[in-house]
Amino acid sequence: MLNIIICGAPGCGKGTQSDLIVKKYDLKHLSTGDLLRNEIAEKSELGIIAESFISKGNLVPDEMIISILAKNIKAFGSDINGVILDGFPRTVAQAEALETLMSSNGTEITVLLDLNVEKDELINRLLKRGETSGRSDDNLETITKRLEVYETKTAPVSNFYKNMNKYAAINGMGSVDDIFGRIEKVLDSKLVETVSVSNL
User: Fold this and answer.
1) Candidate list 135, 145, 153, 185, residue with the active-site label
2) How far apart are the first and last CA of the chain?
3) Does the active-site annotation cover 37?
4) What are the Cα distances from residue 195, in Å, to 5, 46, 190?
5) Is 2-180 a domain of CATH 3.40.50.300?
6) pTM score, two decimals?
7) Catalytic residue among 146, 162, 182, 190
8) DSSP 8-state symbol, 108
């Protein structure tokens, strides 16, 4: 089973690569943002509570995000090839909670894929996206701030998975196919490792 976390700074292309990974390895895609929006739209008990935080400008507590993830992972059942997590975990506390959740489901995180793109390239990509999408938050000042916040907050998460030997840095420069080729090498080697361990 492949359970992947994909991360990288805003503009690194993780959405594009997530779609390719899901297609090739037949994984379930879990985006915490999408899951939250679904719960709120369905007016579920979790959704109503989550909306009460969001409407006041507060972050949804970690335990709520974990509850929503647990609900969705349980709904998939055991007959799946694995999941790819996009947008979670963002902190070490979330990573620890995720490890506990996966363990309680008899599985574990296989690898964290960290898409590394040079800062100038990220800024250029996001500025271009702002021009085409009209997103007001894609301006130089906001982009620079978002990149700084990302680096500060997520570096400890990368270290957490490095310490567990579950970290893979991916060069995120070049064409979409080039980047996906690098990801395939990592994931295919992880699949070989998984099969070897299960045969012991």
Assistant:
1) 135
2) 16
3) no
4) 20, 37, 9
5) yes
6) 0.89
7) 146
8) -
